[in-house]
Structures are given as C-alpha cells and as structure tokens.
From TrEMBL:
Matches recorded under InterPro entries: GH (IPR017853), GH_1_N_CS (IPR033132), Glyco_hydro_1 (IPR001360), Glyco_hydro_1_AS (IPR018120)
One GO molecular-function entry: coniferin beta-glucosidase activity
Job description of the protein: Degradation of glucosinolates (glucose residue linked by a thioglucoside bound to an amino acid derivative) to glucose, sulfate and any of the products: thiocyanates, isothiocyanates, nitriles, epithionitriles or oxazolidine-2-thiones.
Gene3D superfamilies: Glycosidases
Residue positions of the active site: 398
Leader sequence segment: 1-27
Catalytic activity from the UniProt record: Hydrolysis of terminal, non-reducing beta-D-glucosyl residues with release of beta-D-glucose; a thioglucoside + H2O = a sugar + a thiol
Name of the protein in its database record: Sinigrinase
GO biological process entries: carbohydrate metabolic process
Pfam family, one: Glyco_hydro_1
Organism whose genome encodes this protein: Brassica oleracea var. oleracea
Length: 495
C-alpha cells in the first residue's frame, strides 16, 4: 500500500553521510589483449597493488534498491522529493529502480564473475529506523541486510557499507528539519549504534560521507554532519572497535581545482576552492578546526566546536574515501572582478569555478553538464589528500563514466577509455607514495541518478527499464580483465 508523501522538505543542497566497510576470475582472450587499456604497454602493466588491495563496485540504497515501503520501510526524504513535479529530469523516481532489494543475489553473482573482492553499498536509514530514534528498530530491514552481508561474504567479497547516501527517514525532516538541527547528532549516533551492533561483527570498515553546498545555511548543516560523525566515531571507538576490529572513516566528494592561470591570486583561489569543498569537512576531523581560508573569509559565521567535539577529532578517521570524477578551473574573485551571476560569492570563498578556459574545456566534455574527463585530476587529488593528511590511508570509493543517453550502448568504448586512463593516473599516484588501498567503480548497473533520473547511464551492465534484465557492456569485460591482470601475477608470486 502506498502512503501519501508528507511534504516536510528542506530545500538544502544534497549532503550525505556514509557508514562504510568493504573474486578473482579467469579471463578469456579479448579484442584489447594486444592493445591493453587502449594505449601502448608500459611499466604500469607490472604495477603490484598488493594482496590486500580492494577492487570493487559501488552503489547506494535509494539508487538501487527499489522496494518502496516494503517490509516495514518508511518514507525517506528522497521518496518525498521525487514526488514533486519538475524535480527529476525525466519525472522518474526510485520506487523500483533496478530492484536490487530482491535481485541482489544475482547482482552479487555478476560482481563475483567480474573478479571484484569488495562491494560498497549503502543502507536505507528509513528501512532500519523508520521513525529514527522516535520509534522501534525494523527487524525486517535488519534481517534483509544481514542476509545480504552474509551473501557477500559467501561469495568471497568484503562488505564496505555506507550508513546513509543522501537518503534518510522523512520523519526526521518533519520533526525538526534533519541536518539543520543539532538534534540530528542524537539520531545519527543512535543509527550508528544499531548498525554497529547488528552488522559490525562481519562489516569491518565504516565511513561517513558528505558533500557541501554554496550558501550560508549549509554551514549549519555541515557542522551538524561533522559533529554527528564525531559522535559516531566516539561511540564506535568506545563500544565496538576493540572487539570487532573494524575501521571508521569518512567519504568525500572530491573535485580537483586547477588555477585558471599561473597568477598567485588564481593559485590561492584553487586552495580556497578546496577549503570550501573538501577540507571544509576533513580539517575539523583531522586537525580539530575549519580550514584557515574559511576562517579568514567567514569569521564568526562559522559554527564553533565544543571541547567534546575537539577531543573526538583527534581520533576521527582511520581512512578517507575519495569520490573522484571530474575537475574544474578556479578563478580568483577576491582580488579580481568576476562576472555577476557566475559564482564567486563570499560563501564560495570568492572563487568562480567552471570547466572552460578561453572557450576550451578542461578535459573532454561528456554530455553530462557537471562532468568533464580529466584523468590528471585523479592523480592530483590523491596526492593532495596524501600530503595534507599524512599517514591516513585512502580509498577511491567512487569513480566512473556517465553517458547522457537512454540507449543500450553495449559497446561503451568511451567508458573503457575513461577507466583505463583514470586507473593509470591512480597508479601514478600510488607510485609517488599515495597510500591508496582500494578502488570502487561507479557502477555495476545503470541506476537512478538523482535529479537526472534515468537519463544518465553509469553502468557496466545495461538495465532494461521494462524487464530489469542486466546485459553486460564492453566495460564489464574490460574491468574483469584489468582485475585479473593485476591480481593473477600476485597469486603466482604467493604460490
């Protein structure tokens, strides 16, 4: 039975938290065996990732699961948002999506055939705690995820679990405005405790993920997200970690910003761009303070941390997850004049960012408006995180290629080229000293892509919108071959 969505909706930019943990296959000869990775063979082919390196695919609950209000699940904020006319490009929603809730055993078999040894997925908060801390635990939701985690482990893969990836119980939105209210810290801590208690004996890597916005109001939201993460970390450290031997970290959307010129002003603007996007969240968790660039520009508009918060921040991360897709130029608007209406406000650090310089794009445009292909940005982003947050291991928790098309496109040559080039940049960062321990591609399947609906395809498998049949694209074979080539040599060395 469908319930009419409650229209308590906060008009904030997307922000999300992730609670995270994490098969080799033989490969037949393919057309690219003599033209590996669409380029000449180089020393990169002999790169050793190590026996503990995680290769995987990534997904999220709302984008994959479907099963709308099934088995005790309540409305989420995205169930409500997608019901508002005009919000989603094709008027679609995630009520069915790719029906991963019911079809996960088959999807896990596809992953095993690819040879991945890990699967990053998120839990539906509204499926586990339909009313947050104001109601009971939904044991049908707990049982579903227990079966799924067991199925992942049975196939020789490691579950890498995200607590919440944009979606949360609508109940919390209606009660107090969700992330805009400090009460959310209590709810998230309660949610983390329930998940740790029920899943932590088998899920060994936990993370919270987030992304920022461009207005002053998100400063409050971000502050509550950071404090919620610190509360979850403290809980996990004190109650669960010693016994469960798991890890807890945070996953960040990461854009590499190139200065639009070699001027000092634009180089400083690129630093400010990171401060108002990435280090906004990471610096408080590692250093116990907001980035100095934010402090200088926003002053007392930045919320303050409590002593308890700062005590937790000394131990806030076991790892950092990086979702890296694209890069942009950064132009100074603090000492230079920027065109009105093009960004560069105080809340954006007086930086205008876009992907165009002198009429030319930074990297290759894809047809998806926010997404240009710039592999160098992967290397630069990983080295930036390595140098700023020394000794904290990294995972690339998302990286993939989206095509703005509703066609089948099984010969996805551009996705293969993208994966090849980005993984080359990934390896270059590791050769230079980046301590990266895993790579998760987005995504195994075409799925619901937020406000783009089903108009953008990221899957290595095409999903028929009517039958939900999964059909492999060329990229699935390429990824399988890549994993095999970069792990089979290790297996021989260990024999």
């Amino acid at each position: 039975m469908e319930t009419k969505p409650s229209m308590c909706l906060s008009l904030l930019p997307f922000s999300f938290l992730c609670f995270t943990i994490i098969t080799l296959a033989s490969s037949s000869s393919t057309w690219y065996d003599d033209h590996i990775s669409l380029r000449e063979v180089s020393q990169e082919e002999n790169f050793n990732f190590g026996n503990d390196f995680l290769f995987g695919t990534a997904s999220s609950a709302y984008q994959y699961e479907g099963a709308y209000l099934t088995d005790g699940k309540a409305l989420s904020n995205w169930d409500v948002f997608t019901s508002i006319s005009g919000k989603i490009a094709d008027g679609s929603h995630g009520k069915v999506s790719v029906d991963h809730y019911h079809r996960y055993p088959g999807d896990l078999d596809l992953m095993k055939d690819l040879g991945v040894n890990s699967y990053r997925f998120s839990l539906s908060w509204a499926r586990i705690l339909p009313k947050g801390r104001f109601g009971d635990v939904n044991m049908e939701g707990i049982d579903h995820y227990n079966r799924m985690i067991n199925a992942i482990l049975k196939r020789g893969m490691e579950p890498f679990v995200t607590l919440t990836h944009y979606d949360m119980p609508q109940e919390l939105e209606c009660r107090y405005g969700s992330w805009l209210n400090p009460q959310i810290r209590e709810d998230f801590e309660h949610y983390a405790e329930i998940c740790s208690r029920h899943f932590g004996n088998r899920v060994k890597t936990f993370a919270n993920c987030t992304s920022g916005g461009s207005d002053i109001e998100p400063l409050v939201t971000a502050h509550n997200i950071i404090r919620s993460h610190l509360a979850a970390v403290s809980l996990y450290r004190e109650v669960f970690q010693e016994k469960q031997k798991g890890k807890i970290g945070i996953v960040m959307n990461a854009i590499w910003f190139e200065p639009v010129s070699d001027s000092l002003a634009d180089r400083l603007a690129a630093e400010r761009a990171q401060a108002f996007y990435l280090t906004w969240f990471l610096d408080p968790l590692v250093f116990g303070r907001y980035p100095k660039e934010m402090q200088k520009i926003l002053g007392k508009d930045l919320p303050k941390f409590t002593r308890d918060d700062l005590k937790s921040s000394k131990n806030g991360l076991d790892f950092i997850g990086i979702n890296q897709y694209t890069s942009r130029y950064a132009k100074d608007c603090l000492h230079s004049v920027c065109e009105p209406g093009k960004g560069g406000s105080r809340a954006e650090g007086f930086v205008h960012s876009n992907a165009i310089k002198d009429g030319l794009a930074l990297g290759e445009p894809t047809g998806v408006n926010w997404f240009n292909v710039y592999p160098q940005g992967m290397k630069e982003m990983l080295m930036y995180a390595t140098e700023r947050y020394k000794n904290i291991p990294l995972y690339v928790t998302e990286n993939g290629f989206g095509e703005n098309s509703t066609g089948v496109l099984l010969n996805d040559y551009r996705r293969v080229q993208f994966m090849s080039n980005y993984l080359d940049a990934f390896k270059r960062a590791m050769r230079k000293g980046a301590d990266v321990r895993g790579y998760f591609t987005w995504s195994l399947l075409d799925n619901f892509e937020w406000i783009s609906g089903y108009t953008v395809r990221f899957g290595m498998y095409h999903v028929d919108s009517n039958t939900l049949e999964r059909t492999p694209r060329l990229s699935a074979s390429w990824y399988k071959n890549f994993i095999f080539k970069h792990t089979s040599s290790q297996s021989k060395d260990d024999a």
